[in-house]
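Researcher: Structure for this, please.
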Amino acid sequence: MGVKRWLLLMVLSTALIGLGLAVILLDIYRTYPGSPWLKILSLSPLPRVLRAVILGGSGALLLIYSAMRLNRSLMAPYVRPGTSVVETVAEHRRLERGPRIVAIGGGTGLSTLLRGLKMVTSNMVAIVTMADDGGSSGRLRRSLGLPPPGDLRNCLAALSDDEDLLTRLFQYRFLDGDELGGHPFGNLFIAALAGATGSFECGILEAGRVLAIRGKVIPATLRDIALLADKSPSFDARAVRIEGESSIPSFPGRITRVQLEPDDPPAYPEALRAILNADMVVIGPGSLYTSILPNLLVPDIVAALKATRAFRVFVCNVATQIGETDGFSCMQHVEAIETHIGKGIFDQIVANDCYSEKLPDGISWVQDSNGAMLIPIYKTDLIDKNRPSHHDPVKLSETLISLLEERTGPLDLPPLDDFAQVKGLN
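Model: Predicted structure, token format:
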């Protein structure tokens, strides 16, 4: 925990102070040997060894008690209800030693992944797509010229300690007013920090510090980009070009290709450093064409993924998405990515194999197809029983960490179940 040396120094300094006081008291005792008060305070009627034990033990107990109370007072703002200072500090130290994990994606899928991984490491970096152009994010892009803050907002909330309160605060939408109507507070918070710090990237970093999140949330690129998609209403029909991430799912047909405009935006430098220094890079879960691929269409991101020595894992969605992946199998998800950026990106695929729950109308389970998978695939139960179309954050994190430990050996990590119960994830 990094505190033993300071405890030893405290004991040594206390002993020196005690020796100094003993010299003064001994001088007083010799000057006034017949004082009844000194006999009582020095316990002179008792044997010398017993006197030393009583006085020394009393001093040690008072020192320990005062140190504990002082620590409790100083750490009170950071200690969760029901946990001690020692547990809080030990958890912080363990999370600091956790693996360096980079998560790439956007939307609900990325937030779910971060919600589980923050329980095992604070060395998290979330790389978020900047192609969102709908709702409040789109309005802020057009009016202030800012990159879209929506997915960044969700990831900041997912990595915070008090996630429930912060999520409700960040998702709160102003209902009245022509200017504020429809804007979530979280988007305005990020926009305000961007204005106060002078740049969007500084605003995001400051938001992470203000909220004391575990890890970092950074954009894939700071360039103003638009997502374009070619969609065919039928297999023999000519593809139609659709512009705008928010318009793609609602247009009928099958997506044949997506691209960015401009098609070669520079990657955010911190994103490249994080990928190259990572122990594990997790791509997905999330909307295949509108959350995952917009990050991978940044050329520098793909180059870093090919160059890194990290364990690269693709997490396949548990259910299809209307307007994007209708009827897709796990293999088709991977093929769609490899069609856009080439092969050799993934070392492992993680997929769900539990199909017992009932899904909402219009979507189906993502299952294996009959084709041969050239990439190793690990299948297990990953669904959230309360929301079967989504991953369970604890199950997914346990699976990813287990796969990483198979490559690196055991990691010194806190037990996921204990912290999940405290955080209300189970």
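Researcher: Any notable elements?
Model: Confidence is low (pLDDT under 50) at residues 417-426. The chain is about 45% helix and 10% strand.
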